[in-house]
Write a structure and sequence with these properties.
Length: 185
């Protein structure tokens, strides 16, 4: 079974992080929420407090199959300022492991040079920070081992694209039907 690591920083967009957790767990995917600090409590951009499953210091990155970076502000900036996480993002991409980012978080991948020559999307107005990418305005862009998405309104199709990439389209369709999702994918 695939193991997905979702990184939470103070100021993350709650719906972008928690929708992914919910959809993936419905699909039977092992999801671990990870605080990027030494505290397991994380406060989202709309002041919603939650307890992460673990902290970055206690995490064994080798057990993960995918890193997910939710957006939001200042959550995205806080993720990008976490050196140990950025080293692992680079390592995952170098190893061909999957990395997914939504909203403002795809800019992190752009800043790190991981989007050169591939299709990627992000929150409207931040496209200039997708350095070298073929900018897409689709709800979700899948380019090899990198999945990007535009924002809160695309959280469900983003989570379904992750499900499809880790399991298959049939499972993504089954989950979409079970949550009565009929939007664009």
């Amino acid at each position: 079974m695939a193991k997905v690591l979702i990184f939470l920083a103070d100021g993350f967009e709650e719906i972008e992080g928690l929708t992914v957790v919910d959809i993936l767990r419905r699909a039977g995917i092992d999801v671990i929420t990870v605080s990027i600090t030494d505290k397991d409590e994380v406060v989202g951009s709309h002041k919603i407090r939650l307890t992460a499953d673990t902290t970055i210091g206690a995490l064994d990155f080798t057990k993960g199959d995918m890193i997910v970076l939710p957006g939001g502000m200042p959550g995205t900036k806080n993720l990008e300022a976490c050196d140990s996480l950025m080293q692992q993002v680079d390592a995952y991409i170098k190893e061909g492991k999957k990395v997914s980012a939504i909203c403002a978080a795809p800019t992190i991948l752009g800043h790190r040079g991981h989007l050169k020559g591939i299709k990627a999307c992000c929150y409207p107005g931040l496209e200039g920070e997708l350095a070298g990418a073929e900018v897409s305005y689709d709800a979700v862009s899948v380019a090899g081992n990198i999945i990007t998405s535009r924002g809160l309104g695309t959280a469900i199709p983003f989570a379904l694209a992750i499900t499809e990439s880790l399991i298959d389209k049939a499972m993504a369709d089954k989950i979409a039907d079970s949550v009565v999702y009929s939007g664009v994918r």
